[in-house]
From TrEMBL:
<dbReference type="Pfam" id="PF00378">
    <property type="entry name" value="ECH_1"/>
</dbReference>
<comment type="similarity">
    <text>Belongs to the enoyl-CoA hydratase/isomerase family.</text>
</comment>
<dbReference type="InterPro" id="IPR029045">
    <property type="entry name" value="ClpP/crotonase-like_dom_sf"/>
</dbReference>
<protein>
    <submittedName>
        <fullName>Enoyl-CoA hydratase/isomerase family protein</fullName>
    </submittedName>
</protein>
<dbReference type="InterPro" id="IPR001753">
    <property type="entry name" value="Enoyl-CoA_hydra/iso"/>
</dbReference>
<dbReference type="InterPro" id="IPR018376">
    <property type="entry name" value="Enoyl-CoA_hyd/isom_CS"/>
</dbReference>
C-alpha cells in the first residue's frame, strides 16, 4: 500500500489505499519510516497519494489500538525533515490528522484545488505529534495554527495558499508534472552543492 519508485535519484513515494482515503495502518507507517530513513541517498523525494484524498491520517481501527499516539509519526516527520535533498509533498487531495506531519516536514507543498486541510486532534482526544505545531506555526504563524489545531477549522486549498501552508495550487492533471519540475534542478545538481544549499536555507 506504499509504493516507491526510484529513477535517476528521484524517489517518489505514493500512498496507495484510495478505498480507505489513504488512511495509514501500522504497516504502512512503518514502511514510510523505513523509506524516509533510507532516503539519504536520494537527490529529491516526492510524497503523494492515489485517488482524491492524500491521507485521512491514522486508520480508525489502528488509531484505537494505539497508532494515534505512536512515535512512528514523529520518526517519519523527523526523518523527512532531516533529508539533505529537496522534498515535495504533492497533495492530490485532502490532508487530515496525523498525516499533516509528513507534509509539514517537506520543504515544499503543492496541492490540487479541491484539497482541504484539517487536524482534529483535540476533538478526538489526542495531542498532536510534538514537532507538528512548531512546523505549522513556522509556516503560518501561531494564531492560524490555533485556528486549525484548537478551533478545529477545515481550511480550503486557497486559504492554505493564502496562509502559506502550501506553496502552489496546481490542477489535478498537472500535479505530478509540477512536482517533478520543481525537483528537476536538484536531481540534476551536484548532490554536495544541493545539500550545501539546503543547509544554508533556514
Amino acid at each position: 500500500m506504499i509504493e516507491l519508485e526510484q529513477e535517476d535519484g528521484l524517489w517518489t513515494v505514493t500512498l496507495n489505499r484510495p478505498d480507505k482515503a489513504n488512511s495509514l495502518t501500522v504497516a504502512m507507517l512503518e514502511r514510510l519510516v523505513e523509506i524516509a530513513e533510507a532516503a539519504g541517498e536520494a537527490r529529491a523525494l516526492i510524497l503523494t497519494g492515489r485517488g482524491k484524498v492524500f491521507s485521512a491520517g491514522a486508520d480508525l481501527e489502528a488509531a484505537r489500538a494505539g497508532l494515534a499516539t505512536s512515535d512512528l509519526w514523529e520518526r517519519l516527520s523527523g526523518a523527512i525533515a532531516a533529508l539533505p535533498c529537496l522534498t515535495v509533498a504533492a497533495l492530490n487531495g485532502t490532508l487530515a490528522g496525523g498525516a499533516n506531519g509528513m507534509a509539514l516536514a517537506c520543504d515544499l507543498r503543492i496541492a490540487v484545488p479541491e484539497a482541504k486541510f484539517f487536524y482534529p486532534v483535540m476533538k478526538l482526544g489526542f495531542l498532536p505529534q510534538p514537532s507538528d505545531p512548531a512546523r505549522m506555526a513556522a509556516l503560518i504563524g501561531p494564531a492560524r495554527t490555533r485556528l486549525i489545531l484548537m478551533a478545529g477549522q477545515k481550511i480550503t486549498a486557497q486559504e492554505a495558499y493564502d496562509f502559506g501552508l502550501v506553496d502552489r495550487i496546481v490542477p489535478t492533471d498537472q500535479l505530478m508534472e509540477t512536482a517533478r519540475a520543481l525537483v528537476a534542478d536538484s536531481v540534476a545538481a551536484d548532490p554536495v552543492i544541493a545539500a550545501g544549499i539546503a543547509k544554508l536555507c533556514p
